[in-house]
Amino acid sequence: MSDISIDPKDTKKILTRLKTVRGHVAAVERMIEEGKTCEEILLQLVAIRSAVQKVSVVVAQHYANTCMLEALEKGQNQQEVMNKAVETLLKLNQ
User: What is the pTM of this model?
Assistant: First the structure.
């Protein structure tokens, strides 16, 4: 597959969401150090998972719309490209 080349608008969205993830992770570290409740920590972990999922969706959309098409245009076997795509996308839900 090709290198990732995401639309600058999407790149900004991804980077913003990753910075949000970084902030949530730092918050969890502080919460653990401060002895916060399990419920509070778990809520932050849910927020992290949600932010990462949103980034995954943007990258998966790019993968489906660009990377797969480029592979096919370069003459790669259609069935192999589709199998690889399905395998990769299924990993998002594990």
Answer: 0.70
